[in-house]
Amino acid sequence: MLKLLRIDVEKQHFLFEELSPEYARLGGRALSSSIINREVPPDVDALDPKNKLIFAAGILAGTGFANSSRLSVGSKSPLTGGIKEANAGGNAASNLAKLGIQAVVLEGRATGLTTLKIDADGVSFVDAGPIKGLGNYQVIEDLKKAHGDKVSIVSIGPAGERQLKAASVSVTSPDFYPRMAARGGLGAVMGSKNVKALVIDSKGAKGVEIKDKPLFKAAASKFTKGVLAYPMIEGLNALGTPILVNMINGMGCLPTRNYSVGQFDKAHQISGEHMAELMSKRPNSVPGHKCMTGCVIGCSNVFTDEKGEVIVSGLEYETIVLTGSNCMIDDIDMIAKINWACNDIGVDTMDVGAAIALAMEADILKMGDATGALALVSEIREGTDNGLLIGNGCKVTGERLGSKRIPHVKGQSLAAYDPRGLKGTGTSYATSAMGADHTVGNAIPNPLSQYDPASPKGQAEMSSFLQIYHAAIDSLGICLFASLPALDFADLQGHIVQGVAALYGETLDRDYIKQLGIATLKAEREFNTNAGFTKEDDRLPQFFKDEPLLPSGNVFDVSDEDLDRVNAF
Amino acid sequence: MLKLLRIDVEKQHFLFEELSPEYARLGGRALSSSIINREVPPDVDALDPKNKLIFAAGILAGTGFANSSRLSVGSKSPLTGGIKEANAGGNAASNLAKLGIQAVVLEGRATGLTTLKIDADGVSFVDAGPIKGLGNYQVIEDLKKAHGDKVSIVSIGPAGERQLKAASVSVTSPDFYPRMAARGGLGAVMGSKNVKALVIDSKGAKGVEIKDKPLFKAAASKFTKGVLAYPMIEGLNALGTPILVNMINGMGCLPTRNYSVGQFDKAHQISGEHMAELMSKRPNSVPGHKCMTGCVIGCSNVFTDEKGEVIVSGLEYETIVLTGSNCMIDDIDMIAKINWACNDIGVDTMDVGAAIALAMEADILKMGDATGALALVSEIREGTDNGLLIGNGCKVTGERLGSKRIPHVKGQSLAAYDPRGLKGTGTSYATSAMGADHTVGNAIPNPLSQYDPASPKGQAEMSSFLQIYHAAIDSLGICLFASLPALDFADLQGHIVQGVAALYGETLDRDYIKQLGIATLKAEREFNTNAGFTKEDDRLPQFFKDEPLLPSGNVFDVSDEDLDRVNAF
After folding, report:
1. pLDDT of residue A199
2. Are the C-beta atoms of A471 and A432 separated by less than 8 Å?
3. For FRET with A73, which of A106, A173, A241, B244 sits at 20 to 30 Å CA-CA?
């Protein structure tokens, strides 16, 4: 059984703790949300030392089960004031599990900026003075030099040190690109703990014990085969998540010009198809890149310039839309540079992209001005007034600038799907304890299904179902794209449950996934209620209800009664 | 030298008249506009017997020069109150020229509904009682039966008989599909003359005399080769004019929801690519169909249903957009049926499509309701209040319904290019004597050129240049698509001039095309000025200046000063 590693960063004390009955058999988001709900005072300020920061490996981490190495980062969010979990790929979760650690719990506040080295010997507290103020890329470079290239590095950039509300947490991929647990300002919590980085080294670790190896192997193998047989996977491998640009634009739901319209006239310029064409001509570009250990899909990329120099990895759909079409920016190379700058500074491209669009609407820079947008992002590093503004995300920026059209729920900006045409996704935006978020329950219609994303009816059911499923998936540590095939092919869910049962050497309820998801959502809901959230917080901004989304003319018209049914477990 | 055939339909008298010096060497639009300007009192009501209706063959008609058989129909327009020329393919112009007729001039009003039979013997006046009230398809069928399948038939449907302002004139293709001289309500003028049809039979005609045959042959051959070598021609042949749907949608300039937005989320469903896919599976569908004698391109189609029954031929871009995306209708089969109904009733799909969108905005039927739209078009035939309303076109419909967003200039509805993103086209819409029209000077950017269609600057020059060119092309009888290659490859213009010179056995000025165009535009401008038009009529509706076109945010901001420079010859 894996353990909790509690680290009191103030006292430089650490403790390996057996999972108490409340936390037993949990991992990933389920575990981090349970810990936050049970241990963090709901009314504490998110940047107070009494808040805790959790790094939880998923239930299947380190086992070799396909695509199950997501690392959940959890805390009370400085952006939303509610409970938060954001996860990223990389190999940190796998290394933690191999070290026998289900989750690391950071408590207190270090007196000086600190790097935590976690290995088979326990925890070392290293002075982070030499890397203070550095961007994530340099931090990774320096720590790799110091600790070797077998480690995982979790770090924050200048935005996290500044405790800005859109600050992200970086987790390295196996080839040392930063991947982001971007949402909810968890980098600011890490900054508030005066922790610059974690270095996780699994050398000498005993690995994860699987109780019934033959059964596990059979389940894992069937799951992998099922994922690879799923029709969409080939396209994801070839074009990555940017495959969605033309799809969602074609549906008229691509956030454009601060959610003013659902299609972008320059969509082709920022599409996966166009990127693939560019990458085929550019040296060193890598389509089908794998962001984490054990990935069998490869939906990421390494995006290079014409000379073959890496601009960023990976350049993903949400970033492309929020810093691209939503800001009327059509230059994919500039978007990639903005992405790099956000990664280096350590901010969420989505909340910052939404903030830039608001700054454009307020004439701080011109709509579509890519050079200006990149310069504005760089100002976060410099700490100018405008830099600090957008570094605090879309809500703070919009309120400061007097915007009447701030696309956020519970303080977190919306993702790259307009909720007026995709009302199931809109229902998830509204009702998730996480604030507006696409990974909690994104209802993209399958061409073969009868699901109508534009109907006001039936969205509560669709969103509830997906929120439960994805809460479980986030707890298992499985990536979103490996989880999609199991939505259409129910036998794949059986293979997941069988894999966990084999890992534990136990029989699991056939409703295991549903129960895991519901327990997670309940804990999150309970924390938020105790923190003062009411059903009035489960609403989309008024303009999505009033302004028809052209061309469809759709408004978000899922009833409040339906929204209130989503979390009625 | 070809002659004028003047027909006094009231007195049942006809006269072959030598072309007077003012009309000599003119044809097509140049000739019809000159006749209107010199002979029609500018303040006469368009439906008064004193108005004249001209059917003019282009200068190159009947010679075998590629794509030069357009028939110009001209008159004072009941829709705009100004001068009007609309042209169509088919083989009527070719047959007229072979009969030695450069243009037919209809004068007066017949006492009973009449069919005019024009052949080598002159004109016969045939009682049209048996075909009164019939749609164009039945009229064509009946007249073909009576006069054989070597004739050309020019006819009106019930809308023309009712003298509705959006009534069109039908001209048969070589395979007896109706092609439409659709714009400006010229069908109503024909109806006001109590003429149901012209049957043109060139049997026994002596044909067109070409003065220098070897030179002509050389010029015609080089022109054909040049046209066929033009890069866009292959796409036009494969997909037809609907190739523009995805192109213009991608540019964010596709009229959608009564010109509310520049992209349609269901554009793929009505695109040339989708049509080609459907047609490849449907029996009897014909891509690359030729609408007229001597065509070397083949950009039309015969669009059939799944069983192979013809729905309509040809289903073209402007129709698809005005009755499709602009009404939020995404069912290409329903659009084809609406097209058929408009052709049969004899109304312009564009003005009627624009009127339907206004009726949808006014909740007479639901936005996107294809079945309702088809039923509404059918009401034109029945003569219900709503039918008569939309049969009178977009301006009458919008004013009657109290719309503040009526997309028209000089009473004629805009074409399928939003002027806010395509400002050269918008400048042509505003300043043409014809009212809003795409064929007079459509400035679609060539990917290779430096032309910026969204700039407020330089559009007067672009529009002036194109209006002069297309006025000449319409006078030569050459189709728009054969004329485009000559815009990019100037030597092709030389071949056209050489062809005309060889036809006449004369030397022509190297500025021949420009002079022909300017003379035509001057005549049209003069008529309109005398009819009371001022520069205030050369403006787009206010909403194109006030409402930003999403997503680009463009407004139409070409200055009034620039618009007033367009016609300052």
Report:
1. 98
2. no
3. A241
